[in-house]
Design goal:
With 511 residues, the chain is of the alpha+beta class. The chain contains 18 helices and 16 strands. The N and C termini lie far apart (60 Å).
Length: 511
């Protein structure tokens, strides 16, 4: 009994008070009163009942403790690998990062959480049309619309050198060659082998599954070497589109032989092969890379500045090319996805580009399963593992946290709700018929709620991934949302408006 209770208990006799004080003094100093115990028990029972009964308990309790006994008893997440190569040296870094995250490997026909497919898996496994909620695959059904060289390069986009499918566009090619007598061409196949510059008269016009593409003859050179640029791209969602580029670095690969004097018979002058010249062996780049610790991208930019040019003009072109290319092929991919029950897919690809002497950027191709092997060049291992670390975190494949005893935030309603004034003005909690209500929390369907939830979690776990779709907002005042969304699909416009709304209140969401 404490002092305040004694003072207010007027019915207690003086002797009773003295007795009470005497007993109080004899109690251990660490005793706990009955009232706190009852409050604690009541709170525990109430919490347990709410977690059990509420269908959205995670929204009420936005923090989950990952070090519970139940979590520790759960089996670790699993991954499987699908590929036709007899060796797996090209997957060494994939395996290393996944096992560092605590994932365990199983067979492709066992129960897995992640299927990492080096080859296109959807023709081999019909079960991928009915993925479980906790399964994910590293390719998109229909991604061939982007990575098939014939399909991509014969798409008429301004940043693709003019190309013609053979033999279907034979006459169109001959007319173009006649109108451009100085033009040179390369003939390519989907296998991307045996490419050589040829005059129009030397093109095999009857070849199937091939195309002929104009050769850009004025490339930007570094110490006389032609090169290409590999930008890692991740598509995390289609309809609505969300795509990211890896911003930590860019893969630069230089031809081993100098471009001039040009000789079409020496492909090492203009074609990047497996034994390319790495950045750290290019004389003018070596000092920036080895002595000053630059990345492949930053040392190249330093070289461009040394030539009196501005490299900053390159990267907006790169983002525009990637964004436009993906958007152009989205409808085709969406049509393929219609036959899939769940869309638990993401796609890591590499867009290969090159630059002319005016710093104009051209797209060469998009690689479905880009090389992530450091067998030729050991220093590239850091790049590949950093790319994988960022990609995995972005798409929800993250290190196990059970041993760390840390808390992890879960996305809640307040993180998704935007444009509250508009929702109130149009009474969107009473009727969702107006277009202005389509982003109001009360009007979201279950599917839409999940889309925004995924977009929010991607934003929280981007690491070195930079969002390019929806387009970043570099200047909120000059970003006209009505104009930007005018030609978009309904769902892409919806997602873009959500990011725009988030950007208005937090600059971190603008990019």
């Amino acid at each position: 009994m404490d002092a305040s209770v004694e003072e207010n208990a007027s019915h207690q006799t003086e002797s009773e008070c003295k007795l009470a004080k005497s007993e109080e003094a004899e109690k251990p100093s660490n005793s706990i009163g009955l009232l706190p115990v009852m409050i604690f028990l009541a709170a525990t029972v109430t919490t347990a009942v709410m977690v059990e009964l509420l269908p959205h308990a995670s929204k009420v309790f936005p923090w989950s403790f990952s070090d519970s006994i139940e979590d520790q008893q759960q089996p670790p997440p699993t991954y499987a690998i699908f590929g036709r190569s007899p060796t797996e040296e090209h997957l060494v870094h994939v395996v290393k990062v996944l096992e560092m995250f605590g994932y365990q490997r199983v067979g492709v026909n066992e129960s897995w959480n992640l299927l990492w497919a080096h080859d296109y898996p959807f023709l081999s496994f019909s079960s991928l049309k009915n993925l479980g909620q906790h399964q994910v695959v590293n390719h998109l059904p229909g991604c061939g619309y982007l990575t098939n060289k014939v399909d991509l390069c014969t798409t008429q986009l301004p940043f693709l050198p003019r190309a013609f499918r053979l033999p279907a566009q034979r006459e169109e090619f001959l007319d173009y060659a006649s109108d451009n007598p100085q033009a040179l061409f390369v003939q390519k196949h989907n296998e991307h082998r045996h490419i050589k510059v040829r005059a129009p008269a030397d093109i095999a016009l009857g070849s199937n599954d091939s195309f002929v593409q104009e050769f850009v003859q004025r490339p930007f050179l570094v110490d006389g070497h032609k090169f290409d640029i590999g930008v890692y791209v991740v598509i995390t969602s289609v309809n609505p589109l969300r795509a990211y580029t890896y911003s930590g670095d860019v893969l630069f690969r230089y031809c081993p032989v100098k471009y001039h004097p040009f000789d079409a018979e020496n492909v090492d002058k203009y074609i990047v092969g497996d034994d390319y010249l790495p950045t750290w062996e290019v004389p003018s780049l070596r000092k920036y890379y080895n002595r000053f610790g630059g990345s492949m991208r930053t040392v190249f930019e330093a070289y461009v500045r040394d030539q009196g040019m501005e490299p900053a003009k390159i990267w907006p072109q790169v983002e525009h090319i990637i964004r436009t290319t993906i958007a152009t092929k989205e409808r085709d991919i969406v049509n393929i996805l219609r036959s899939y029950k769940t869309h638990n897919f993401f796609d890591l690809m590499r867009f290969d580009l090159f630059i002319d002497e005016d710093l104009k950027v051209f797209l060469m191709e998009a690689n479905m399963s880009p090389n992530l092997s450091s067998a030729h060049f050991k220093p590239n291992s850091l790049l590949y593992e950093q790319v994988l670390y960022s990609v995995f975190n972005l798409v929800g494949i993250r290190p196990l946290t059970a041993a760390s005893g840390t808390f992890e935030m879960i996305t809640a309603d307040k993180n998704l709700a935007t444009d509250l004034n508009k929702c109130a003005v149009y009474d969107c909690d009473k009727s969702c018929n107006r277009e202005e209500c389509h982003l109001c929390l009360q009007c979201l369907s279950g599917t839409e709620y999940k889309m925004l939830q995924q977009a929010h979690e991607e934003h929280l776990h981007r690491v070195d991934m930079k969002r390019i779709i929806p387009q970043p907002i570099h200047d909120l005042k000059s970003f006209h949302i009505v104009e930007k969304t005018a030609n978009m699909t309904k769902r892409n416009a919806w997602m873009t408006r959500w990011f725009y709304n988030k950007c208005q209140f937090d600059a971190a969401w603008c990019n």
